[in-house]
Amino acid sequence: MEKAIFAGGCFWCMVQPFDEMPGIHSIISGYTGGHLENPQYEQVKTGETGHYEAVEIEYDPQLFSYERLLDLFWVQIDPTDAGGQFQDRGDQYRTAIFYHTAEQKQLADLSKQKLESSGRFKNPIVTEILPAARFYPAEEEHQDFYKKQRKAYKEDRQQSGRDEFIDENWKN
Asked: Which InterPro entries does the record associate with it (predicted)?
């Protein structure tokens, strides 16, 4: 098993796209990249901890490659938005790929370059590629939120504008 960490705005919206794919062992919502040890949701949402809301994915690279994870990550986000994602604003909602190995960094860099050269977006791709930092799992109520709180998840996702952006920018 290997691990991948992606920040794509609200972590609630970053679990379902990866969940139940062959080779995906687990997906944990949490916090990474900041300066505060053992952060809590109420602290992270202030935007003052330096942490990103992120997901840590444990996967079997023989069944689901890192390249496939990257491809799936990009189509969940607006990679040109440095101020957050959709309705969620602030540093804690920035996008990033956190790499664990030199190979992950190389593959992430290549995928970003491919997206930049595709001409899909007029604005620059601002998603950062950073070394993996300590990952702190979020509180239990944030784990598998889309399953546990279906109605609230659907309402939040609908209000966010994420699905409209995906349909408009990625479905071709």
From this structure: Met_Sox_Rdtase_MsrA_dom (IPR002569), Met_Sox_Rdtase_MsrA_sf (IPR036509)
